[in-house]
Amino acid sequence: MLVYLYYICSSNFFKYSIALRGFTCYNACSSLMNYKIPLKQGLSDTVLKIADLELDSRTFNVKRQGKLIQLTPQEFKLLQYLMNNKGRILTREMILSRIWLYSSDVETRVVDVYIGYLRKKVDMGYAKRLLHSVRGFGYMIKD
Question: Which domains does the chain carry?
Fold first, then answer.
């Protein structure tokens, strides 16, 4: 069995492959969890910041103005992807291929739904909106 690991840091994507032979599913998963991917120098910072929004990829904490925001794993991955691409327009297809790995059972509408969830949690109750729709193109996060 061949397993691919994807490591995302800043907007650089490193692909590591590990050949696992003769492992049970449990052993393979525990081996992958203990696998350490080397970081290039300067990429070790795990906290992303945009305005007063902070995302810590090591602890999986998201804070806005110091207040902790609870996110589901999919919401966290989506917010991390948006923050890694600050100021860039991300199309629904780009988001689907990165976050949902473009499963055949997932429709593009799911992106709209999850952006709505993020807006409720990240933007609601704050004067400055960070998540923006770009009509006809997609979504972006900016200061």
Answer: 2-34 (no CATH), 69-141 (1.10.10.10)
